[in-house]
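re: ur question from yesterday

yeah so i grabbed the chain u mentioned. its 85 aa long if i counted rite. heres the sequnce exactly as i have it in my notes:
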Amino acid sequence: MAPRTDLIATFRDQLDRALETGDTDRAAALRERLEALEGGATSYLRPQRPGAMGLGTSDEVPRRPVGWKPPKKPDPMTTGTSRRR
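ran it thru and got these structure tokens back, copy pasting raw so excuse formatting
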């Protein structure tokens, strides 16, 4: 067996023992590790790297504040006129 499959089998054995003894916290931690190793449905999710998105934010797309409205568009007929009389 490959080392990865050995590790998965070991985690499954530990998970079974944790469930038999009623240690739900340990079982949940082992289940999460098993899902990460087996590449479950959430295998594309990874913890955020500190500082990867900039200072003080983890938002990938800027969000508008609540109640914000875009400014009024300028009148297109004012660009060709002069202020001189």
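noticed a couple things. Residues 35 and 70 are 44 Å apart (CA to CA). also Residues 3-21 form the longest helix (19 residues).
anyway ttyl
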